[in-house]
Amino acid sequence: MSSVGRGRGDGGSDRGGDRGRGHRGGGGGGRGGGGYGDGGYSRNYASHQDGGRGRGRGGGGGGDGGRGNYSSYRGGGRGGDGGRGNYSSDRGRGGGGGGYGGNGGGGRGRGGWRSSPSDLHQANSGVERQLSELSLKPENQLIRFSSRPPPGTIGEKFLVVTNHFQVEIDSFLNGIFHYNVSISPEVVSSKEYGLIMEELRNLYLQSHMNGSLLAYDGRKSFYTFDLLPFNSKEFPVSVKTRQYIVAISLVAVIDLEKFRQFLNGKDVELPQTVIHALDVVLRQTPSSIYTPVRRSFVSTMFGTSKLGDGLEAWRDVMAAAFIEQIPVIEFVKQLLRWERDRRDATISDVERLKIKRALRGVRIEVTHRGNTRRTYSISGLSSMPTYEETFADRECGSNKHIVLYFREKYNLDLIYKALPCLKVGNKGESLPMEVCKIVGGQRYTKKLTNMQTSGMLKVNNLRPGERLDKISQIVSQNNYGEDPYCKMFGIKISGSPTLVQARKVPSPRLKYHDSGKENVCQPRDGQWNMQNKKLFMGGNINSWVCINFERDISDSYASNFCSRLGGVCNDYGLVFTRNSVLPPKRGNPMQVEWALDALYGEAMRRLKPRNQPLDLIIVILPDNNGSLYGEVKRICDTNLGVMSQCFLAATVKKMNIGTLTMASEKMNIKAGGRNVVLEDALMQCVPLVSDKPTIIFGADVTHPSPGNDTSPSIAAVVASLDWKLLGKYAPELSAQAARQERIEDMFGMCKAHFFSFYEENHEKPERIIFFRDGVGEGQIQDVLQHELREIQRAWMNTFNESRSPPITFVMVQKRHHTRFFPVNKDFNFYDKNGNVLPGTVVDTGICHPVWRDFYLNSHAGIQGTNRPAHYHILHDDNNFTEDQIQTLCNNLCYTYERCNRAVSYVTPAYYAHLLAFRARYYLGVDSSSDGSAAAEHGESSTDHQLKPLPRFHENLKNRMFFI
């Protein structure tokens, strides 16, 4: 019996389907002609419309296929090698080697052909037959998002202004025409795409395109209001002496009827094609005025701010870092912090590396050729100083010194001859730094220094009133009413921001230990303090040592600091033994691993007769060595299996009581204690949590920085162990392909958590609440489809059951642009800066018309304008009301154990973020991009060998070492 390959289905009249796994593909296929891809079929196949062009790859050896998406509405798939077809407006994929997709894969395509009605009918019959079989399996059904129930009612109502502006589309606009753009030879840079399309407009817009406005996305597509007088056509274009062929072909007519139904609250799928088309249209004019930065815009017209080291911030409502348009020599002086002109100074290897990292990929222009300003891209630095650098001079047929060449050719005596030359272009030509100037408008995407980050925060931290004024100014300046693209496409944008109704959910009561003068606390404005309070449950630190990597702090001072720290811990209820196992030890910052290994070994020899573990290592770090922190955490977490608490030298010197109090709270959690609990949890009255064993998850994925193809993405999942108190969370980690957003090992990590929950409580979890952080909007369905199934499968596998308990799956988003602003100065709802108070909920007006979501501002603003968290209840077997889920989310924000403040989103998801970020240190990486940003801008890496992720030590299992 032949087996079928796993397949990614993509054919059908409507989107649907569930990701599923088939069996290993069997048959192969020879090299064929032009396949039409049996996987897809026309939206209107009954009328036998001809399809478009087909492409296919031959059957290959019938190995494993891809993942499949199939339901009664979505079919097709990919086996070992699959064909790819295009019938009318839908795309289908044929499966090679017998994959789900109809009748197997076609051969290697030679451009394809238009399909006859009989071809389509045969393909449709095969697809429908296989879909009817697949739809019988529950795991293949598409998971529907939760529908919106009535809005919440708890809390006092008030109005807020949002930065959302009403958009209307004229009824005369029935469709938008989508055209594909293909340029050959292949183009790489966005700038080159723009130049080619601009020349195309100049040459052919009036003569061949009826003068239509083309809303171009900068790459492969443009949209028009009118149908162009051709379905496909090729145009020759010349840019900078290079010849190109621009092929334009009609892809689809985008129907706006479903979009209007969606806006009217009908339960129809949000047509992303319409959203993308309208987004491209609206960005046309701003893109010609401002500088696009991903989905935002910045400009120098709103001012710039110096960030230091050759960088500046360009402002808008947001800000981004750009490299200053200055001579390269000036950039280097700022980067190396030269306080005086050092013309003859050489640079160290460390300084050379710093310059190279900062300038690689930066575009420069030469200044020694008068009005001829050629531009180059920096690829590196010369290995020798300029005075030793030579090049092959074609005129004299021998090598010539750079210094001599510039003197003879340009009458220019080079000054900074001790510095290396810049290597530019593909051939690595050498240019002296002092004849080069940085081209303006280049965004700086590398990691900012602490000084630059501080400067950027100051630029971005506009108070709510200032931010709203800036937004209104920009909307007025954009003048959408006169925008030619908006007028052509019938788009009308209100000039006034939208008012919506909000509610203020009350803060929870918090419980501390009864021995304190104040054992119950009602936070005010999202914050409280430890005055007159004792930790709810104190832990024990019976054995500890201290290691000092800062040479300016003496052993006696380090000892006094530890004594002071221990006193604060004991005052609040954390039992901290007075005497350390060893006197404070000094460590060499250049030999961190050796120092920690030696310290741990000596301490364990002392503790062995008592059969006692080492509970804590206190680490004193230099103020100016950020990488040392990551090294310490990596060694303690993965090698030694011991808790660590790090302090900067400046903190040790100040011995500030507030800082020591915060440290004692972190240490208490690491020691197994509890700082504070929700009073409702203690009284067993949290709705849909306290009535039966409930496990609460938090999950996040952190991605490597752009350009890093060897580090994996790291998935972190934490889960509650003490379901009655909702305070203790166990960690699990896994590595996966770079920039892969969905958690591939969700099954394994959840199974470990279910087992740990059972060990801790001697009961199975009978309810699951899952908070998922960091998912981009385009990946929501894929993530839900995969991860929800894996959670269910893990529970059933762990407890050998046929069905899983009810699950509520909530996605938390922080990467969005929504903000709230005050209507008046009523301090019942706003703080002194104009931010809405903690507990502010918005679940109407700007929310999804059909699916379930709400905005919650749970935290007190420190500076700038607060960003509320956006919660999407994607799946809810537990049938939470809006009041119940909103109150639970708000209350969980008060259980974050690292500080006495409510945090900006639910604690379990926050802990998962901390854990994932912590694990990057295990790879020797001290930074990463946030949440799913990297996933939005790159594909998963399969061509590079990924670094393995070391696992945290067994001693730290089920312990909150990442706090």
Automatic annotation (TrEMBL):
Listed Pfam families: ArgoL2 (PF16488), ArgoMid (PF16487), ArgoN (PF16486), PAZ (PF02170), Piwi (PF02171)
Q: Where is the composition biased (Basic and acidic residues)?
A: 7-20
Q: Where is the composition biased (Polar residues)?
A: 115-127
Extract one GO molecular function annotation from the record.
RNA binding
- Region annotated Disordered sits at 1-129
The family annotation for this protein states: Belongs to the argonaute family. Ago subfamily.
Q: Spell out the protein name for this chain.
A: Uncharacterized protein
**Which species does the entry assign this protein to?**
Stephania japonica
